[in-house]
Write a structure and sequence with these properties.
The chain has 620 residues and is α/β, with parallel strands linked by helices. The protein contains 18 helices and 13 strands. The radius of gyration is 56 Å and the shape is rod-shaped. The structure holds adenosine-5'-diphosphate (ADP).
Length: 620
């Protein structure tokens, strides 16, 4: 197993460290930004020094006092004008002392702000006295003592203000420097942590790369193991197929006996009770054969060895026989069976389509006790052909729906125990629909019924004009000319007797050989129209016997008989020199079809009596 957890742990670690590094980087950038701002503020503080405003107010107070003293001493107009000018300059300083920037620059010191306002108020308070005496020199000179007192008071206040401003400004500078050095310390710490984080990240990355190499190595090892396991599994699968082939042969041989003999027996004179019993044996044999066929089919579908033979055909040709096949079951259960299909033709495999429909309609009839089963077929946009089989049966619980199409699933075991089945039908349908190119699904409600649907895509379905209804053909037992010479080579007594009994129904009394060796001798000693040759026989099997007959230059038609249902058996028959192949169980219908194909010139002219000898067969 790959060691996933440390690998994931390292990934989480790296992601966390990357996030932390990013956070630290942002913090450092913010701190730098803050630092720069502080530095700019300090620089601005130095340029527009608040203490300069206090100092200039103090200096102007001094100059105003000097001008007052000079004017008092000289009474000269020039000194009086100078006095007025000094007051104006002094007055102009008040705007700086009352501005917001004055106290803000030194950290919003309230004491400084109040002192500034006080100085400003005192300067402004002199204005009425000066303005009143500005145009009257004598009046102004008389008020100089008063103005001197006030100016000296203001000078004391501006002196205090200067001291306060200096102190506050130096406090503010100290604070700013402390902040800058704190920020610098924080930046130093952050850079240290960032370096550590990046170092740890590099280490984790290196460890992750090492783990990744180890994981790759382990993956390669697992791949090799998987390849070895796949080879073993393929071998096991081949063994399974071989086992299934053997099993099918072993089961089909006695089944051949049961079904064939039952069919032959059914054609004899039986009373009604015997007929019913024979029919039950026949039905049981059919059921068993269906189970074997299902198991074989799913194994072939799994192995991908199913042959799909596509051709263009009318849908009604597939649907009508199914409707007939199912009608008696529906009737016996009192279920209304309806087929509602558009008249159309399509390109697909009719045999496979029939297999899917028989399964789905059969299931609906099986799981419906009353009501209806309805098959609808509609051509949708985009050439999709949609089949729906809707029933009013027991329905399926929502939880069971997802597992329906997997092998050996039976959701209502009590019902399926009664109704029978292998749980393979839907799995086969799903694989067949997908092989034909389409999709299958179901909507169902427990207790209310189900709607199984499937769509075939790219089947080139086209609507046709409805064909005139076909008159149902009655099946008659084929009659052959009395001089038809047939040899049956079969080691199994029961099978031999079945073949003979069925051929006799067609008016042929065949010769029989009990093994391959005797078969070769008989085939070479007298002329035959056709030889039925079993494949599996002791000593010389059917393939060997056929090869020997052909080597001796005999060209009589030879038809293989085998219980094996694989396509490879058919190929083996043809390769050995046989002309055709009939799979067991051998039925009347199969024998008739073979004789029709290979001995058309030996078919008896059907007399009105022979044509009237109609025998309805249980199953084709
Ligand atoms: P089985 O041969 O057992 O019928 P399927 O694969 O055809 O196997 O069906 C699997 C199971 O799905 C059945 O045993 C039955 O429980 C359920 N099922 C199939 N068709 C229907 C239906 N029309 N209504 C209710 N249940 C159904």
């Amino acid at each position: 197993m790959l060691r996933k957890l440390p690998f994931r742990g390292a990934s989480i670690g790296i992601t966390t460290l990357a996030a932390v590094s990013f956070g630290i980087l942002i913090a450092i950038m913010l701190m730098f930004n803050n630092l720069e701002k502080r530095e700019k503020e300090v620089a601005a503080g130095v340029r527009e020094d608040s203490s300069w405003a206090s100092f200039s107010a103090d200096r102007e107070a001094g100059r105003f006092i000097e001008a007052l003293l000079k004017a008092q001493e000289s009474h000269a107009q020039e000194d009086i004008d100078n006095l007025l000018l000094r007051y104006d300059v002094f007055y102009s300083r008040t705007s700086e002392l009352t501005s917001d920037d004055f106290s803000r620059r030194i950290g919003g010191n309230l004491e400084v702000r109040d002192a500034g306002l006080k100085v400003s108020d005192a300067i402004v308070a002199l204005a009425p006295t000066i303005d009143e005496a500005a145009s009257d020199s004598d009046l102004l000179i008389s008020r100089i003592p008063f103005l001197l007192d006030k100016a000296r008071e203001i000078r004391t206040m501006t002196g205090d203000l200067s001291l306060l401003t200096d102190r506050a400004e130096s406090d503010s500078l100290v604070g700013a420097r402390a902040l800058v050095s704190r920020t610098q310390r924080s930046i130093a710490w952050s850079v240290t942590i960032l370096t550590l984080t990046l170092g740890t990240m590099v280490m984790l990355l290196m460890s992750q790369i090492r783990q990744s190499f180890r994981a790759q190595h382990e993956l390669r090892r697992l791949n090799e193991e998987n390849e070895r396991a796949a080879i073993t599994a393929n071998a096991a699968n081949r063994a399974k197929s071989q086992f299934l082939a053997t099993m099918s042969h072993e089961i089909r041989t006695p089944l051949n006996g049961i079904i064939g003999m039952t069919e032959a027996l059914a054609l004899t004179d039986l009373n009604s009770e015997q007929s019913r019993e024979v029919e039950i044996i026949r039905q049981s044999g059919d059921l068993l054969l269906d189970v074997i066929n299902d198991v074989l089919e799913i194994s072939r579908l799994e192995a991908g060895t199913v042959d799909i033979s596509r051709c263009r055909f009318r849908l009604s040709g597939v649907l009508q026989p199914i409707q007939k096949l199912m009608a008696s079951t529906a009737r016996s259960k009192g279920i209304d069976l309806q087929f509602d299909a558009q008249t159309l033709s399509l390109d697909s495999d009719p045999a496979r389509l029939r297999q899917i429909l028989v399964n789905l309609v059969g299931n609906s009839l099986k799981f419906t006790e009353r009501g209806s089963v309805r098959l609808t077929v509609r051509l949708l946009t985009g050439g999709r052909l949609r089949f729906e089989i809707r029933d009013t049966g027991i329905g399926i619980a929502e939880d069971d729906i997802p597992k329906l199409f997997t092998e050996f699933t039976q959701v209502d075991t009590s019902m399926t125990r009664r109704a029978g089945g292998t749980g393979l039908g839907l799995a086969i349908c799903k694989r067949l629909v997908e092989t034909l190119g389409g999709q299958i699904g179901v909507q169902s409600e427990l207790g209310a019924g189900s709607c199984f649907w499937f769509e075939l895509w790219n089947c080139d379905a086209k609507l046709d004009t409805p064909a005139a209804p076909e008159t149902p053909k009655k099946r008659t037992v084929l009659r052959m000319d009395a001089d038809t010479r047939i040899l049956v080579v079969e080691d199994n007594r029961t099978n031999r007797e079945i073949a003979c009994a069925l051929l006799k129904q067609m008016g042929v009394v065949p010769d029989c050989a009990i093994d391959g060796k005797e078969g070769v001798e008989m085939a070479m000693s007298q002329p035959y129209d056709l030889i039925f040759m079993d494949m599996r026989m002791p000593e010389l099997d059917g393939l060997g016997a056929t090869a020997t007959i052909r080597e001796k230059g005999n060209t009589t038609t030879i038809v293989g008989l085998t219980a094996n249902a694989f396509d490879t058996d058919r190929d083996a028959c043809l390769d050995a020199g046989m002309n055709d192949f009939v799979s067991k169980p051998v039925t009347l219908a199969k024998l008739q079809q073979t004789l029709r194909n290979w001995l058309p010139e030996k078919l008896a002219k059907q007399s009105p009596e022979a044509a009237a000898q109609v025998i309805t067969l249980g199953r084709s």
